[in-house]
Amino acid sequence: MINRASASALRLLALDVDGVLTDGRLYYGNNGEELKAFNIKDGLGLKLLQRAGISVAIITGRRSQIVERRAAELGIAHVIQGREDKRIALEELCAGLGLSLAQCAYMGDDLPDLGALRAAAIGLAPADAVEAVAAAADWQSRYPGGEGCVREACEQLLHAMDRRRAVEADYQ
């Protein structure tokens, strides 16, 4: 269960990509192109969160034009790529946005995510996160990375903020 007090202060959700927004697999084509699969339900979950006034950011250790494209499709303005120390990247992002870490949630699945996950007020993890990340998370999805874990996290955050019904009402 996500802490309601922490959720009420939430202004930013930052996400890892590989293993969170995707299943963590990398596909390479014969011409050297890299392919990733994103879950459409995760995307709508992020849009719902944005409708509730929560900014979304991506922090990833890899660099990919595919990530830029997906972020643009979802209206995610804050995309930080090629950063190994995700905690420092999250701190810098918060400082630039005038936010404190107490106003942030972070979702990650593997060891490079631990620092950011622990620094954020709310640490989130997919079902298939490595043991250390799962143990450090405040909440863990029933779904693995790339298979709806982000959507479930968004719904749980909205529920904890008492905004889920209001945001979903636009679709009824």
Explained architecture:
The chain is an alpha/beta fold and 172 residues long. It has a single domain (4-171), classed as HAD superfamily/HAD-like (Rossmann fold, 3-Layer(aba) Sandwich), CATH 3.40.50. Helices cover 40% and strands 16% of the residues. It has eight helices and eight strands. It has helices at 4-8, 40-51, 65-74, 86-97, 114-119, 131-136, 149-160, 164-168, and strands at residues 12-15, 27-28, 34-35, 55-60, 78-81, 104-107, 122-125, 139-140. Strand 7, helix 6 (131-136) and strand 8 form a beta-alpha-beta unit. Helix 2 packs parallel to helix 7. The two termini are 27 Å apart.
Please give a quick description of this structure.
Helices cover 40% and strands 16% of the residues. By secondary structure, the protein is of the alpha/beta class. It has one domain: Rossmann fold (3-Layer(aba) Sandwich), CATH 3.40.50.1000.
